[in-house]
Amino acid sequence: MADSQTPSTRSSGAPGTVRGMATNTLQRPRASATRPAPAAAGPDSGHALIRVLLVAGVLAITGLWWVGTPASAGSTPGTGLLAIGELAGLQASFLVLAQLLLVARVPWFERAVGFDRLVSWHRSLGTTVVLLVVGHVAAMIGGAMLIDHSTPWGEVGTLLTTTPKMLSAIIGAAIFLVVGLSSARLLRRRLSYEVWFVIHLLTYGGIYLAFGHQIAAGVHFVDSPLARAAWIGLYAATGLAVVWWRFLKPLVDNARAGLRVDAVRAEATGTTSVWLRGRDLHKFGARGGQFFLLRFVAAGHLVTAHPYSMSLTPRGDRVRFTIGMLGDHSRSVAHLAPGTRVLVEGPFGRFTSDRARSPRVLLVAGGVGIGPVRALAEELVAAGRDVVVLHRAHSIDRLALGREFPESSLLHYVPLTGRRAQLGYDPLAPANLRSLVPDVASRDVFVCGPPAMIDAVARTAHTLGVPRRAIHHEELSLS
Amino acid sequence: MSTTPWRGTLLFAGSLATIAVAAVTRFAGATEPPQAGSASVVGTSGTSSGTSGTTSGTTAAPGASATNTQSGAAPAAAAPVVIVGNTVQTRYGPVQVSVTFTGKTITAVQALQVPGGHQESVMINNYAAPILAQEAVAANSAKIDTVSGATFTSQAYKTSLQSAIDLLG
Predict the structure, then answer these.
(1) Residue B42 and residue A147: Cβ atoms within 8 Å?
(2) What is the pLDDT of residues A325-357, one digit of tens each?
(3) Disulfide engineering: A267 pairs with which of A21, A271, A295, B113, CB 3.0-4.6 Å?
(4) pLDDT at A252
């Protein structure tokens, strides 16, 4: 499912074919087993806890500001504005640390929330942080202007000469602004992943540059050793988490596994599988449905890591990733030479069999989304679950891995091919889905494919009576 | 399951609301400080009253809010008199000087308080305070140059110095 979210799946093209619509025999008895109640600590308790921690942190920071700000600061517009600017700055710094932690690959966060939602939260917080930083700078300059009765440019000069570490702080703020703008929807679409990523790396520099003026000039830290120690501790802890989980842990993992490309196989039109060989692969603890960030040590690949899902979990010393030929990068994967070193980070993702509470499961794959569904189906069948796989593709020649779903009492594979425009209907529309899988309401539903398809299937399943907590999907995007 | 549009903006609105609530409740009850003429200083953080214990709040006349610790029973013509100036708040802490007068002449200035919460301030002010003292003695008034790099301290220093001069009368 990697990279599958970016390209459009709705281009006109070769004539499509419908298959499996009439031939399948999925008329099974209505589920007698009722859906088990969710466990006490449901999958959403992690979300709630992180939200609570975020709010508590912001309130604690506000408390620190409260203690260090005299009521008389509000007596003149200038000093009031300065105090408000300080609070905006404090909140921005705290939220930046929260952002770093969310994407630091901390195992607890990955299990509780999942990579895709963490990235999504990271993105939302980013908007907040950039706006707070802009507000902080504006309020500090504006407040000082009111006090000094000077011009904005004159005030910037004054601040630079009288406040320690101010130059680096201004550069840091500029970096935040640039990173924020490059991530804004409008600009992000025009930037390549690589350019965006390098710009994003600047954030570490921005945080470092901005930290100096907080400790040296922040009125709440200058006079309070306790607050200063807590603040430095917060930064140090975040820094350690990032260094360990984002840099050292992957280094250790890769040194142990020593992964190399073993073989590259064309699976179907637009789909290629890459086999990797390495040592002690079971130590990754990877599960069906999960993905790794892969970085091929080859020209044109080394700069960035890409998220790719396993289509076969590690067995022996080999693991398989199935990749859709969708972007520049994924297309060039087909030309990788065996023996190429691969650096991996992971596994990530909560698109795993332990999320399914019902003994019956429906897996819906769109295009190359079949990769993780393949690995997931194997695990579910091995666990004795009743599994139906719906495989949606534009044409028969695009049905990758179709032969790897042998019909059995527990596994039913239904290919659904053809473009909607040519079929004249949507094979995944509620009426069709109900006739294909009459007992869908009693099943857990896993969807993997292009975002539009995920949204449509999730809506349809909900319409057909599947509770939201039984609908599982995940989207891979690092930006 | 793409990122909820506008969630970041909504979070920002939430942050702003938190800030607004905190500011309004914190500043509630803060009234215009009884600012004594010369004690209103460019570059202070506006906390010249209410927080400083050394500043008297019962002002009788403009400029007379300083704690006056005159040594000696009466200002004799030749005997040196030490007058402590106003405490003036800057963004980085209070500034207060004591001025030694011999007659009407400033013979020495001692910085009682300079911002010193952290290394940078200490360095700046250890460097600035002696320069300011020399300037004050040379000028025999508070009309002295600002030490670059210590603008706020310099301005507060001048104000405290002026308040001491005013107290001498």
Answers:
(1) yes
(2) 877 777 788 889 999 999 999 899 889 999 999
(3) A271
(4) 95
Same domain flag for A104 and A65: yes
Residue after which a domain boundary falls, among A226, A253, A280: A253
- Stretch A193-222: mean pLDDT: 88
How many domains is chain B built from? Answer: 1
**B140-158, pLDDT tens digit by residue?**
888 888 776 677 788 888 8
| DSSP-derived 3-state class of residue A101 | helix
A281 and A219 fall within a common domain: no
Identify the band that residue B128 occupies on the pLDDT scale cut at 50, 70 and 90: confident
CATH number at residue A308: 2.40.30.10
Whether A147 and A107 share a structural domain:
yes
Nearest CA in chain B to A83: B23
Residue A173, pLDDT above cutoff 80: yes
Q: Which of A289, A290, A365, A367 is nearest to A7 (CA)?
A: A367
Res. A206: pLDDT tops 70: yes
Q: Which residues constitute the domain of residue A343? A: 257-348
- List the single residue in B15, B42, B49 with the smallest CB-CB distance to A132: B15
The string of pLDDT tens digits covering residues A41-53 is 445 677 888 889 9
B contacts of A95 (beta carbons < 8 Å)? 15
Kindly state whether residue A281 falls inside one of the protein's structural domains: yes
Q: Is residue A385 part of a domain?
A: no
Which tops the pLDDT comparison, A218 or A274? A274
Number of domains chain A is built from: 2
Q: Sort out which chain B residues have CB atoms less than 8 A from A120's CB and list them.
A: 1-4
A81 & A178 share domain:
yes
- Edge to edge, the sheet with strand A260-268 lists A260-268, A271-277, A318-324, A306-315, A291-296, A342-348
Q: Give the per-residue pLDDT at A68.
A: 81
CB within 8 Å: A162 and B152: yes
Distance CA A343, CA B36 (A): 69
With H, G, I as helix, E, B as strand and everything else as coil, classify residue A174.
helix
Distance from CA of B87 to the nearest CA of A (A): 16
Tokens of A177: 């602004």
Segment A216-235 mean pLDDT? 85
Residue A38 clears pLDDT 50, i.e. is over it: no
With contact defined as beta carbons under 8 Å apart, do A446 and A423 qualify? no
Q: Indicate if A245 and A261 belong to the same structural domain.
A: no
Which domain covers residue B142, as residue numbers? 4-168
A472 within a domain of the structure (yes/no): no
B9 close to A (CB below 8 A): yes
Question: Omega into A406 within 30° of 0, i.e. cis?
Answer: no
Report the residue from A128, A223, A477 with minimal CB separation from B11. Answer: A128
Confidence of residue A147 (pLDDT cuts 50, 70, 90): confident
Q: At residue B42, does pLDDT exceed 50?
A: no
Distance from CA of A145 to the nearest CA of B (A): 10
Helix axes A45-68, A77-102, angle to 10 degrees: 150
Beta bridge partners of A464: none
Distance from CA of B89 to the nearest CA of A (A): 11
Give the CB-side neighbour count of residue A134, counting CA atoms within 13 A. Answer: 13
Last residue of a domain, one of A321, A348, A375: A348
Query: Helix (H, G, I), strand (E, B), or coil: what is residue A361?
Result: strand
- Residue A108 located in a structural domain: yes
Q: What is the mean pLDDT of residues A130-140?
A: 94
**Predicted pLDDT at A36:** 54
- Reported as type and span, the H/E element at residue A295 is strand A291-296
Contacts of A351 in chain B (CB under 8 A): none
The mean pLDDT of A183-189, rounded to a whole number, is 87
**Which among B12, B15, B27 is the nearest to A80, CB-wise?**
B27
